[in-house]
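Data deposition worksheet. Section B asks for the primary sequence of the deposited chain exactly as it was used as input, without tags or linkers unless they were present during the calculation. Section C holds the resulting structure in token form. Section D is free text for depositor observations; keep each observation to a single sentence. Incomplete worksheets are returned to the depositor.
Section A, Depositor: J.P.
Section B:
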Amino acid sequence: MMNGSTGQRTGGRGRVRAVSAALGLLAGALTATAAGTSPATALTPPVAITADDLTTWQTNGIVWSMAAGDGVVYAGGTFSTLRPPTAAPGTDEQPAVNFAAFDAATGAPTDCSLSFTVSSGTATVRALALSPDGETLYAGGRFGAVNGVGVSNIAAIDTATCTPLNDFKISVTATVRALAVTSGTVYLGGDFNSVGGQTRSKFAAVTTGASLLPFTANADEVARAVEVTPDGRHVLLGGDFFRINGTSTHALAVVDATTGQLTTSYPGFIHNNSTVQDITTDATGFYTANEGTGGGVFDGRIALNLSDFQQRWRDTCLGATQSVAVYSGVLYSGSHAHNCASMGAFPDQPRKHLLAQSVDDPKLLPWFPDTNDGIGEPVGPRVMAQTSSGGRHYLWVGGEFTTVNSKRQQGLTRFADGPDTGAPWVPNVSLSTLTPGQIDVNWQTSFDTDDGELTYRIYKDGSNTPVHTTTGYSVFWDRPQLTWTDTDVAPGETHSYRITASDGTNTSGKSPARSATVASTTETYPARVRSDGASLYWRYDEGTSTFAHDSSGNLNNGFLRNGPAYRQTPAAVSGPSTAIGFNGTNEYAYSNRQQAAPDRFSVETWIRTTTTRGGKIIGFGNLTQQNSTRHDKHVYMRNDGRLVFGVRSGWARTVTTSAAYNDGQWHHVVATQGPFGQGMALYVDGQLRASNILVSDNEDSPGYWRVGGDNLSGWPSRPDSNFFAGQIDETAVYPTTLSASQISAHYALRNG
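Section C:
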């Protein structure tokens, strides 16, 4: 599929060797800190490459391989033309037959032009590596000629003249997918079974004069990665194989650099349906990119120590990893990661294609530039290369993608160690006045593609001087709520607030002004919800944003998806609050914070609808960006307007109201689950409407609270729609079972 190690070696070994520093995990603040906190700095350490893509020429096909050194980046693959940045396919193109060379600092092609061709079929360049002195570029793939000079799937290029070396010729019977070069040896891996007329299965070594060496590391399946250790004594092998020289070792092996004899094997270390696509090293470790096929496989990255060739860490993200590169103690990778929940990061969702981790810890660092999947398989990025030029360090990425950071860009992109030019998102702000004599300023932490720790400044009543400054940590899947309370106000006064987010270099625009009038008395309904112990409480008073602030005090804010209708009136309860409207098609809200499945709980909300298609009102699911695959602890409406409360206890257990509630009036809905003897109970408008005292269990799977829609597959009397069409207000979740008297009291306070 790809060369696992091409284009990442300089000085003949292929990658710019970055000595890895001992860097600990970044600890980010999740709640507001005091005024005067030190401001954030651009690029949250140890990240040292910005996520801002630089203008780069494009290919019209897939880039499979790269090598970089002395400010030049060489790219090979399956393409026929180049075109300028921003140019649409088919415009302003110039020929480039499966190969091109670029100025690392400008992204523009150099005058080095080579044509890799084959007499029949499709030629492709799958491997590129530079000699240690940078004078020779070695290329491997499936091709029979370079600029008309006959070769057999491997060639050497004089970098000074950009011409093939006629004295480097040896027959390789099939595709070469990986190359590594030392001062006297060229290691190769691929599909072949013969090199220079002698048996060499998948791996081989030749001299820089193209003579076959005794090195023998015969594999039973395709080779995809070759990397020489920094001391030159060993060669790291990766691929699909299960045996090297007859000994069991799957996907990864360490062999003697002279003989090819196996020195460290890895039977059972990597899932049988997973392979190693790429290997890179730094001064103390080596790192693998792994791709799996099927369910329950291994798709992530592994860090191993060079001292003993044993594992340092591995991550468990799902979404095949294709390439890895180390710079300044950080492992950068190209993949199509879509589920990293098993390691405390994002749940299954649309793919993310570029990630970063400390070489000492698998926790994802705040570096999230992105591509799309692109053409071909498609999987997005395929290869990485890096080099320095003009005082800057550049990380190049090649692959199948056709967009970068949501802009049109095909085949190639690049990033640098500065300057950081991307500003954080404008914060989403909501005000609340639940306590007399003060205004609570609530906001959803922002997102920046290469900064986790951001500085927030609050501006009051149009002033350009902030009244409060604080910092908070956020990543795209975890944007916790922050809150600051303004007590320098008086009852009856109206004040407005705006907030900016800064990474220390770039500052967002000010958020739209939000105004509130200071309360002189306590609103009785929300006061009772909070005093009864709500752990999540969304009132839906935000206006236009993606943010539902949590009034419970627990900062478990909600994300609003696909633009529901804000500030709907009249609200369910009296007072200044408003409701929210969902369209019954794709709009919903989910909680920012993943939590363990509660064994005792109450969910409470108000609804108003005339729908005849039903839909989920509130529930607990394992996913956020798409319909959940695990889902229960929910209340949904049937097509006929009757309400169902369901949990999964061995199978779907439900209780259903006898009356319908799609009459266009506001209704108070509470579902509780307690121990055996209390079991399941469903209340509507302050009265118990259905129950089952025997069911005290539910699905034990972590998840998120969702409002307005989620999967209802497999549930009794499933309605036509998974999504609720109507208005919802005053949603609360409790870690306890509310009593009948508490529920009736809440309902009675609707006019309070």
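Section D:
The radius of gyration is 30 Å.
Residues 740-748 form the longest helix (9 residues).
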